[in-house]
Amino acid sequence: MANKTNLLLIYTGGTIGMIQDTKTQSLVPFNFRNLTEQVPELSKFDIQLSSIAFEKPIDSSNMHPGIWIKLAEIIKKNYAKYDGFVILHGSDTMAFTASALSFMLYNLNKPVILTGSQLPIGIIRTDGKENLITAIEIAAAKKNGKSIVNEVSIYFEYQLFRGNRTHKYNSEHFDAFETANYPPLAEAGVHINYNQAALFKPTSKKLAVSTSLDYNIALLKIYPGITEQAVNALLGIKGLKAIIIETFGSGNAPTETWFIEALKKAIAKGIIVYNVTQCNGGSVIQGKYETSKSLQKIGVVSGFDITTEAAVCKLMYLLGKGYPLAKTKNLLSKNLRGEITA
Ligand code: ASP
Question: 90 with 116: CB under 8 angstroms?
Answer without folding.
Answer: yes
